[in-house]
Amino acid sequence: MASKAILGEEINKETESLYKKEKKLGEGTYAVVYLGHHIRTNRKVAIKKIKLGNMRSGLDMSAIREVKALRELRHPNVIELIDVFSHKTNLNLVLEFLDTDLENVIKDKSLVFMPADIKSWMMMALRGLDHCHKCWLLHRDLKPNNFLIASDGQLKLADFGLAREFGDVKRAMTSQTVTRWYRAPELLLGATNYTGSIDIWAMGCIFAELSLRAPYLPGASDLEQLTTILRARGTPTEDEWPGMMKLPTGYNFEKFPKPQFSDLFRGSSEDAVDLMNKMLTFNPVQRLSAADALQHPYFRNLPRPTAPAKLPRPRQTVVDEEEEAAADANRKRQFQEAFDDALSATDADRRQAVEPVAKKMDLRISSPA
Amino acid sequence: MTRLSLRNPLLTPEQIVQSPSQRQGMSQTLELDLRAYGCHLVEAAGIVLRVPQVVMASAQVLFQRFYYLASFQDYPLRGTVLGALFLACKVEESPKSIRSIINVVDIIIKRDRGYPEIVTDGYDAEYYDLKNEMVIGEMQILRRLGFNVQVELPYGLLVNYLRCLELTEHPLIPQLSWNYLNDLLRTPVYVCFQPETIACGVIYLAARKCGVSLPASPPWWIVFDANEEDIKQVARAAVALHERSRLRIMPLDSDELEMYLQGSLDDHINAIRHTRSESMASTI
């Protein structure tokens, strides 16, 4: 089985014919996502189309990173890359279809979270993250809306556009990573060498956010983020975080006292606050690893984590009108695409490309001068 | 599942027998020379750009893979070299700017051809053409390879195997076999065999050169998932490469390819070298 991978483009057409695109779901920085299904099994999939055609300075690094990372990972709590195929000048990633994300769940105020629900989400998230770290990959962009939720309630880590391998001490990595509110203090101080501990900090923030139902450390700017952290967590002493001052932008910070965490997290049990504190330890060396976090008593104590299928989910907000409008926009876009393709082709090709679409849409096109 | 395998994709027997370039009428010798020259450019540029060795090696493998899916006639050499380097730098997390890759490759070509070594101006049409070639080259590689741009290399395996065979202290074998790995990047070996076989092949050859005998019953390579026939093929490819001489002037785009086939490329290059040197002399 191992050496069966064959080099070839032929495989593309074969793969492409397995799937059918249905409608557009959304648009990202470098890709458009469509809903589709596997023709034979009828399995729902998300097809992420990466545009290569009109890229002036080559392919976006994040697209490369994403494919690279997802090829390596395979875990129930990590989004599955099912297939890859290219079509003309587009690259298509076939991903598992997941209908909502953790951010939607947190924001839906009609949902009530039980402590057991939070435990279940944290457990799934940490398992997925542990798998990444065991494969020597850093996610580097953990936040609630990158945790997608499958129809059976499983939480899945997604969006590996910033992921990269780690472990090579000699190679510097950028400290400008992770969405600000979830960025670890060592990154804010300009560290260029870090480990999985930056992902754990983000997980700690998400843990707190699940309990508070609001972002825990919402800094308004990069500079203010650090102050926000220090105010919320208390300024670390030299003993707590030796070497802090040696980081590129370390300086003498205002001394904030350590607050009483149990006051803020009233709804959380003692073991939950303990785990959260260990995940939000200032010293990255002492911060818990994903594997250690999963061994924490919090996960063994009662209440038991809720079964994924029984977790709260946001109400499906499928409005027919909306879908109709989306379908309409989709048809228009298809025409536009065919038209764009035709612009770069010869006259004969052009007519051939545009006519069938135009006919289908009952549009009349003037013959090219 | 096999489609998303992390193993290196290999050629099918049909793909090995006739490459796209040969199908379009190119001789096998010319194709091998073009492959070797392209890899030379990638390697030389990588050294000047100070990228890690994995980048150079991956870029060469991407380059080799590409020309089993597309022909030199349709996709000229220079664009693919630029694109492969650009892409490999990104895949291996050592991104380089478009500008520096173009400058370096451009200067190496000029040096090989004996042109005056002047850096192309960033606003020059020549620079824009090169940049275009590079972006298109990258896109074509991605498209043809169906985004299968990961390359598994045998360097790490080689070190492990040498350790197992207690050869790490030998004065010649480690360096010699490492060098063979580098040289083999210029041959189709990396698209025909998995890294284990390649690592065994170079150890086999290096040990023979140095007159060191390795365990024969059972043969040592069995432990490393290789078979005798394959490793001998790898060794043969390395020997064959050493018997070829390196060419400095190879056609880089379709116009030059045509001239090369008509036998007028050398004259053309000489003429350019002459005029460029003269115009440089007059500006000084």
From TrEMBL, chain A:
ATP binds at residues 25-33, 48-49. This is [RNA-polymerase]-subunit kinase. One of its GO terms (biological process) is positive regulation of transcription elongation by RNA polymerase II. It comes from the Eukaryota. SMART domains: S_TKc. Residues 347-363 have a biased composition (Basic and acidic residues). Residues 299-369 are annotated as: Disordered. The lineage of its organism: Eukaryota, Fungi, Fungi incertae sedis, Zoopagomycota, Kickxellomycotina.
UniProtKB/TrEMBL annotation, chain B:
InterPro entries: Cyclin-like_dom, Cyclin-like_sf, Cyclin/Ssn8, Cyclin_N. Residues 40-143, 156-243 form the Cyclin-like domain. Pfam families: Cyclin_N (PF00134). Keywords: Cyclin. The keyword Transcription does not apply. GO terms for biological process: regulation of transcription by RNA polymerase II. It comes from the Eukaryota. GO terms for molecular function: cyclin-dependent protein serine/threonine kinase regulator activity. Gene3D superfamilies: Cyclin-like (1.10.472.10). Belongs to the cyclin family. This is Cyclin-like domain-containing protein. It comes from Coemansia spiralis.
